[in-house]
């Protein structure tokens, strides 16, 4: 029951957070809400529960992991995935779109809607890149992350075809 209440609390807090601060970085706002709700769940259960202490910590950890899985699979995908935007664009055009129309739409709208600026802001906030002499360069953390992504792209065979 604690996990269900903690998860529902997370969902409610996340929705309110996004409605009040929509310009924030969605994923990090969600993680903050998840940590806050899991900690509150753990503290409340610790204080008022007569159950053994290890299940309290386990339940709070499960709530945190469920919230993280939800954040990574639903809002983050909807917010960032090109495929989601393509499906939405096609849904708004029952007559369909040619490949050239789709490519043109992405090229114009991605940039016009702040797609590049948004990603730059996120990377500056996470410390993976920095502005230097009018250019953006990877930080040490950014270089490490690029290497890690490259490793996983090769491991799971999902990177750009060479």
UniProtKB/TrEMBL annotation:
<keyword id="KW-1133">Transmembrane helix</keyword>
<feature type="transmembrane region" description="Helical">
    <location>
        <begin position="28"/>
        <end position="48"/>
    </location>
</feature>
<feature type="transmembrane region" description="Helical">
    <location>
        <begin position="60"/>
        <end position="78"/>
    </location>
</feature>
<keyword id="KW-0812">Transmembrane</keyword>
<protein>
    <recommendedName>
        <fullName>HemN C-terminal domain-containing protein</fullName>
    </recommendedName>
</protein>
<keyword id="KW-0472">Membrane</keyword>
């Amino acid at each position: 029951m604690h996990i269900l209440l903690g998860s529902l609390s997370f969902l409610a807090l996340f929705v309110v957070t996004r409605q009040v601060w929509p310009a924030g970085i969605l994923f990090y706002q969600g993680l903050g809400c998840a940590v806050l709700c899991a900690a509150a769940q753990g503290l409340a259960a610790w204080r008022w529960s007569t159950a053994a202490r290890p299940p309290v910590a386990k339940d709070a950890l499960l709530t945190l992991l469920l919230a993280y899985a939800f954040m990574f699979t639903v809002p983050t995908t909807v917010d960032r995935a090109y495929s989601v935007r393509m499906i939405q664009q096609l849904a708004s055009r029952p007559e369909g779109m040619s490949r050239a129309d789709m490519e043109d739409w992405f090229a114009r709208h991605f940039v016009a809607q702040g797609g590049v600026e948004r990603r730059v802001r996120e990377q500056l906030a996470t410390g993976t890149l920095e502005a230097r002499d009018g250019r953006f360069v990877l930080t040490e953390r950014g270089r490490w992350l690029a290497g890690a992504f490259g490793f996983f792209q090769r491991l799971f065979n999902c990177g750009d075809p060479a």
